[in-house]
Amino acid sequence: MALSWPMADALPPVVLVSNRGPLTFSRDDDGGLVAIRGGGGLVSSLGPVVRKVGATWIAAAMTDEDREAAAGGVVDAEGFKVHTLAVDPHSYRMAYDVVSNATLWFLHHGLFDLSRRPRLDRRWAEAWAAYRDVNHAFARAVIDQAEEGAVVLVQDYHLALVGTWLAQERPDLRAVHFTHIPFCQPDLLRVLPTGVAEELLGGMSSHAACGFHAERWADNFAACCSEVLGWVPTTFVAPIAPDVAGMEELAQSDECVREAEKLEQLLDGRQLILRVDRIELSKNILRGFLAFDDLLRTRPEWRGRVVFVAMVYPSRESLPEYLAYRQEVEVLARLLNGQWATPGWQPIVLDTSDNFVRSVAALMRYDVLLVNPVRDGLNLVAKEGAILNRNDGVLALSREAGAWDELGGTALEVNPFDVAGTSDALSTALAMAPAERAIHAAALRKAAEARVPRDWLDDQLALAATAPPPGSRRPPPA
Amino acid sequence: MALSWPMADALPPVVLVSNRGPLTFSRDDDGGLVAIRGGGGLVSSLGPVVRKVGATWIAAAMTDEDREAAAGGVVDAEGFKVHTLAVDPHSYRMAYDVVSNATLWFLHHGLFDLSRRPRLDRRWAEAWAAYRDVNHAFARAVIDQAEEGAVVLVQDYHLALVGTWLAQERPDLRAVHFTHIPFCQPDLLRVLPTGVAEELLGGMSSHAACGFHAERWADNFAACCSEVLGWVPTTFVAPIAPDVAGMEELAQSDECVREAEKLEQLLDGRQLILRVDRIELSKNILRGFLAFDDLLRTRPEWRGRVVFVAMVYPSRESLPEYLAYRQEVEVLARLLNGQWATPGWQPIVLDTSDNFVRSVAALMRYDVLLVNPVRDGLNLVAKEGAILNRNDGVLALSREAGAWDELGGTALEVNPFDVAGTSDALSTALAMAPAERAIHAAALRKAAEARVPRDWLDDQLALAATAPPPGSRRPPPA
User: Fold this and answer.
1) Starting from the edge strand earliest in sequence, which strands make up the sheet with B394-398, in order?
2) Count of pairs with CB atoms under 8 A, one residue in A, one in B
3) What is the model's pLDDT at position A317?
4) How many Å separate Cα B276 from the centre of its chain?
5) What pLDDT is recorded for position A5?
6) b/e map of A333-367 (b: 16 or more CB within 10 Å)?
7) What pLDDT is attached to residue B39?
8) Model confidence band, residue B434 (pLDDT cutoffs 50, 70, 90)
9) Is the Cβ–Cβ distance between B290 and A119 less than 8 Å?
10) CB distance from A426 to chain B under 8 Å?
11) pLDDT tens digits, residue range B400-425?
12) Cα-flanking dihedrals φ and ψ of residue B150, to 5°?
């Protein structure tokens, strides 16, 4: 979508609102506060874009130092203008842990074992009230600080309700909501209490438009709104693109070259199946290993000739589900190595060290990249791999990842629940002739490079410019 | 729907096809085979209706004695003409255990813990082939035996593919498929391998029409067909009605009177919250107890004044998920009794004895009937309770049960995932004034009696009479 703001070089003021910000604060040796660039997928993708347009970024304080910095107002550091918002820590934990991560994340990724979870008890109702309070605090900060006529880009499922208060108190603003995860279908949304579902969808719908990474999630959101609200807000699809400039630069570094050499030693001429993921229930790490097990069992010719490197790093370990899943991943890798290893060949290398440079080196080198989530908003690794790889590597991609919309035409299709089918895809990829790999990889890179990071921002600015003002879209009650 | 067969008293021949039949065979003292009436929800509801129209019933042999009887051809006993079909036992177990119960049941009820289950491996692919074989064997029996122009009523998810071969080899027959469980939305159907989903939906769609107990399930099936097949077959909604005549008769029996007296002694003037269910993951027994726990915690006035009788009987214990669930149910009941019991008052009475007479006595007596499944095709207990109850009892009904379509206007709404909300519904029900209870119970009974068992059969005969012949409905490929 082309930028349709009246004068492309005269952007309106932009305010980006997200749970996690681009800076974290710590103390230097003299006890003073210093800002350093923070991590996280959203920040690393949006950061460079936001920096270029001089947006103000409003995000939650995560630590005591963050909270101290928050008291000092907007911080100008590392190219960002950041307003860190101090939210009551107890409310924040309830909103973040109980509602955002343990409910909405599970719901939209379809991860609930529904005969047992969730249990929406009195504590959960309190957590929902805290979620509302935290969203209100973010809205308050925007209401107090945004310049007249600013475009407000509200990010993700942590902040679904912000638009509610903006529409009421600052009708001059144009707020757009963007969801970086999937969105579930109506039968699953019915897990939420009716009032909560109405508040959630009503909150999202009070923005000028609601964006998603894939058509499927936008359609599901629209179907949920139609069933629960009785009307459908404006939706749009704007997949994000990885900021590979920084990664390409890193790829030239001495450290990356050393990691690449270590990897070659490890492989010793063998083919490389790679995955790079958080240890996350939706990433489907277990079935990936089971498919590799099936490959070695049913196609003995690959024994000793391929290494599965799983760069998977711990995540959300405050939730018991994630600790249990990590343990299952580690046990299964050990079990399969015990089953198949021979002197000089370890079939699975499980690397939980979260070494970013090492993962870049591996993405450049893979023969097969396995991206098999049970559901995924987009999956940036698939696109990063397609762009970074220098080995005509093959992508085996889950059809349940949002990135399937863009890359499905050239990747090998994986049904993430189908262990036998995943094994077949790995086998096809490993056996692919060099000429076919070259064609596959070129087409894949072209598809992955079709959008650049700035497109995501431009799509939203365009929508903010053309969307009808808040409150004007909702049809009158029948 | 009125019966629109040209001459209502000149029915066409009817063949009913189901996994479980109305007869089971055993040996008498002389070693001869004797037929006795079998159990199961489907058989007890459809049996009386089918008997009256003189239908032939084709069902699988479950035991060695059944298989022996199968060799003898059609058996005429207990008012049924039954053809017992001997299927290869290994194929039958694979089809029944792995595909029907451990995959399709879980899928349509939304019970999969998707980060771990299902694992569609090579064994699963073999089980799917066995499922196809078993369906083919049923189709073969129909093809060989059905009279010219017969109406064939194919029952449930075990036998989704039967119509495939009927349409090819016996275009004179009118086959209708009926699903007694829910049907999932397209995102969940994507769990199945693409070829399997196509075969499953294509098989169901090769019947003249596909029926369900509720509008939601028919809509979901249509949405799946639209996405996977690109066209939508004829669907219809025909909720079954309980055969209460037999239960009303039983209610007069001495045994039932004795059970009623024992129940009154147990209650000793207290109110009765009742549930009657298989121990089944979809029935949501755990959250029912947790809601009762919340009730006692937040509304101390009910302590000592109400007993929760859970008549829940073991089921499918060949699947480890069911054994685990039963254990959780028993542990939680014990835990909560340990928490709340006082001398002379046991808050939860867990009765796993599967005593049908006792459950009839309890259904006549309840103050509150809790029916809170996470998802249920219909739920006959809700309708049976509404009709049998003589105590102006209140129904607290899950909005995820198919019966919600018929009873939702008069029952108290339960979101099965909302423990706090379920507790609120129990509290409302227990505190309801006698006059309000009487109005509620009368309206509920009226809604539950709106359909009689024969309606279900007539709906299908009408559809079979008016549906276009097989093969004529499918649009030509674009």
Assistant:
1) B348-351, B306-313, B271-278, B368-371, B394-398, B412-414
2) 110
3) 86
4) 13
5) 45
6) beebbeebeeeeeebbbbeeeeebbbbbbbbbbbb
7) 65
8) very high
9) yes
10) no
11) 999 999 999 999 999 999 999 999 99
12) -70, 155
CB within 8 Å of chain A, chain B residues 333-392: 374
Query: Among A186-200, A409-423, B315-329, whose mean pLDDT is lowest?
Result: B315-329
How close are the terminal C-alpha atoms of chain A, in Å? 35
CA A381-A382-A386 angle, to 5 degrees, is 110
Six token digits for residue B150: 């017969």
| Shortest CA gap A227–chain B (Å) | 12
* DSSP per position, B54-65: T-EEEEE--SHH
With a cut of 80, say whether residue B386 has pLDDT above it: yes
Which pair of structure tokens corresponds to residue B418? 């909302």
Tokens of B100: 């029907």
Task: Tell me the backbone φ, ψ of residue A244, rounded to 5 degrees.
Answer: -80, -15
Q: Which residues of A touch B190 (CB under 8 A)?
A: 399-400, 415
Q: Say what the ipTM of the complex is.
A: 0.94
Residue B17's CB is within 10 A of a number of other CB atoms, namely: 29
Task: Report the distance separating Cα B279 and Cα B283, nearest Å.
Answer: 7
Neighbours of A323 (CB within 10 A): 14
Q: List, in sequence order, every residue forming a beta bridge with B274; answer none if it has no partner.
A: B309, B369
**Which pLDDT tens digit goes with each residue over B436-466?**
999 999 999 999 999 998 999 999 999 888 8
CB atoms inside a 10 Å sphere around CB B406? 23
Phi first, then psi: what are they for B75, rounded to 5°? -105, 135
E-assigned strands of B119-249? 151-155, 174-178, 209-212, 235-237
Does A110 lie at the interface with B, CB-CB under 8 angstroms? yes
Which position has the token pair 């053809």?
A: B83
Give the DSSP letter of residue B158: G
Q: Does A320 touch chain B (CB under 8 A)?
A: no
Residues of A in contact with B116 (CB under 8 A): 286, 328
pLDDT over 90, % of chain B: 79
| Backbone φ and ψ of B33, nearest 5° | -85, 130
Q: Which residue, chain included where needed, has tokens 């009503």?
A: A202
Instruction: Return the SS3 of A13.
Output: coil
pLDDT computed for residue A469 by the predictor: 62
Burial track B55-94 (b if 16+ CB lie within 10 A, e otherwise):
bbbbbbbbeebbbebbeeeebeeeebbbbbbebeeebbeb
**In the block, which residue shows the tokens 């790490």?**
A285
pTM of the model: 0.95
Measured between its terminal Cα atoms, the distance across chain B in Å is 35
Strand partners, A345: A342
Cβ pair A294:B118 closer than 8 A: no
